[in-house]
Write a structure and sequence with these properties.
This protein is α+β, with helices and mostly antiparallel strands and 202 residues long. 20% of the residues lie in helices and 31% in strands. It has 4 helices and 10 strands. The strands form 2 sheets. Strands 3, 4, 5, 6, 7, 8, 9 and 10 form an 8-stranded mixed beta sheet that branches. Strands 1-2 form a two-stranded antiparallel ribbon. The two termini are 24 Å apart.
Length: 202
């Protein structure tokens, strides 16, 4: 069997000490009534009103490595049968009010990895989970050179535990094939690399 990266995850142990139904604070839960269906019926939908977000895959041309981040994700940790609490992802974050998606992408890259990107390539955007959520994620790739390969990231004031990981194309492909990177934005960005930047796979 191929090596799995799960055994190399962050050593920090997180404990979910409460897990109860709650009135939304950060998330806005809404209910819509919709007409126009066959049979002249009305349907009700509960959904989350959530701001749009960005994700950025960084490629270090001089090191021939891709930068990923590992961090705690409640959606992963709340699935106890999976046995893991963190995810491997591209740099990602929410778009602040008044910001463009590109401005948010530059900000997140620097905050989470310390990298200052000179330019971004827009890949596309997708709805995160259109059945229950309004959030659209905008995807970018940043090709950089002469930038640091830091191992920790995030803002101290936000108490972010972010481990910054730099993998070769082979290591990344192995993690993808093994299912260790099982989030949509990671998969979509990696697919873009495979289709559009074959020279990065050498």
């Amino acid at each position: 069997p191929q090596e799995r990266f799960w055994s190399n995850r962050m050593s920090q142990a997180y404990n979910i000490i409460t897990d109860v139904e709650a009135a939304p604070a950060f998330l806005k839960l809404k209910k819509a009534t919709v007409t126009g269906f066959k049979g002249d019926v009305q349907k009700s939908y509960e959904y989350l009103k959530r701001a749009d977000s960005v994700a950025v895959l960084i490629y270090h041309r001089d090191h021939q490595k891709f930068t990923w981040v590992e961090q705690f994700r409640i959606g992963q940790a709340a699935r106890p049968n999976d046995g893991i609490q963190t995810t491997f992802e591209p740099v990602a974050g929410m778009i602040d009010p008044g910001q463009t998606a590109e401005e948010a992408a530059y900000r997140e890259v620097q905050e989470e990895t310390g990298v200052v990107a000179a330019s971004l390539s827009f890949v596309g955007s997708f709805l995160m989970c259109p059945g229950v959520m309004t959030e659209r994620m905008h995807l970018y790739v940043a090709e950089v050179e002469g930038q640091p390969l830091n191992t920790e990231g995030g803002l101290p004031e936000e108490h972010e535990d972010i481990s910054v990981i730099h993998w070769t194309a082979l290591e990344t492909q192995r993690a993808m094939s093994n299912g260790d990177m099982d989030n949509a934005h990671a998969m979509l960005l990696w697919q873009w690399v495979l289709l559009n930047r074959p020279e990065w796979m050498r």
